[in-house]
Design goal:
alpha/beta, binds nicotinamide-adenine-dinucleotide, 277 residues, six-stranded parallel sheet, 41% helix, single chain, 11 strands
Length: 277
């Protein structure tokens, strides 16, 4: 039976480290959070970011802008925050109104203030192992795996999902640890090859958003399973992996909720501290 890989346990230790770093720097840090328009779906994330920031002694400066703001005006606003020395990092809340192109806008956030680690400059630095701020979910997965004590060198890692925020950066971070990395996606499923790849995984990370996509019986004995997926089924939240069956085979498995989620916001704060250093 697998041990539970719980994000909140690891988060507590990481928060201690962050507090020590902030105290050692003697700086007062500020995270600017920019929301355009009313987005009820992002309220829960904003609340969690504010709570986590304040618990670490970080000022959470919330900037609520009109939904009708033009793209040009938003760029100007971001550039003002870029040049404000009080602001150490900036996060753009999603979703943005339809007339705003996220990719275009996010490139205007100064790379040194990009706490989400998604600016092309920061993504590019991952290739060279020099990124200060890593994409938060990918970084959270790496912390969970580190906690198990496994040495990734030479291990068969299978990542299901190749999104820009999870699968792609995670593959690069895993390569840096000398893991043998296979990245699966919709094309793999359409070719009927998903099961074959998943069965060989010593470390399996799934980030798709489809409940029950990964059958528990596909999980290799002793595998580490990190389920990033979040799906609402009835009144419950579940991941992408059939938990009960997978738990019987894996050595470690993340619960959903309570696995990756609680660590993601802590990675945001760690990125802020790195940006400020
Ligand atoms: P996305 O929609 O950007 O990407 C989905 C990926 O899944 C793509 O690579 C796609 O090719 C692949 N895919 C789709 N159907 C597939 C199939 N049948 N077989 C194999 N691969 C398939 O998703 P995302 O933004 O990376 O999010 C993925 C999931 O992770 C979602 O459930 C999301 O809510 C969750 N998520 C959780 C956190 C967290 O902090 N816990 C953070 C980010 C995302």
């Amino acid at each position: 039976m697998a041990k539970l890989l719980e994000g909140k346990v690891i988060a507590a230790a990481l928060k201690e480290e962050i507090i020590k770093k902030i105290q050692a720097s003697g700086k007062k840090l500020q995270l600017a959070s920019v929301q355009v328009g009313e987005n009820p779906s992002s309220e829960v994330y904003i609340k969690s970011q504010k709570k986590n920031a304040e618990a670490l002694g970080i000022e959470y400066a919330f900037h609520k802008l009109e939904a009708t703001l033009t793209q040009e005006k938003l760029i100007e606003y971001i550039e003002t925050l870029n040049s404000d020395p009080k602001v150490n990092g900036m996060i753009l809340q999603m979703p943005l109104p339809a007339h705003i192109d996220y990719k275009k806008i996010s490139e205007h956030i100064a790379p040194g203030k990009d706490v989400e680690g998604m600016h092309p400059v920061n993504i590019g630095k991952i290739i060279f192992g020099r990124a200060k701020a890593l994409p938060c979910t990918a970084a959270a997965v790496m912390e969970l795996i580190k906690f198990t004590g496994i040495d990734l060198n030479g291990k068969e890692v299978v990542i299901v999902g190749h999104s820009e925020i999870v699968g792609k950066p995670l593959a690069l971070l895993m390569l840096d640890k000398f893991a043998t990395v296979t990245v699966c996606h919709i094309g793999t499923s359409k070719a009927g090859k998903l099961e074959e790849h998943v069965r060989k995984a010593e470390v399996l990370v799934v980030a798709v958003g489809k409940a029950g996509l990964i059958k528990g019986e596909w999980v290799k004995d002793g595998a580490i399973v990190v389920d990033v997926g979040i799906n609402r089924v009835g009144d419950k939240l579940v991941g992408d992996v059939e938990f009960e069956e997978a738990e019987k085979r894996a050595s470690w498995i993340t619960p959903v909720p309570g696995g990756v989620g609680p660590l993601t916001v802590v990675m945001l704060m760690r990125n802020l501290v790195e940006c400020a250093s």
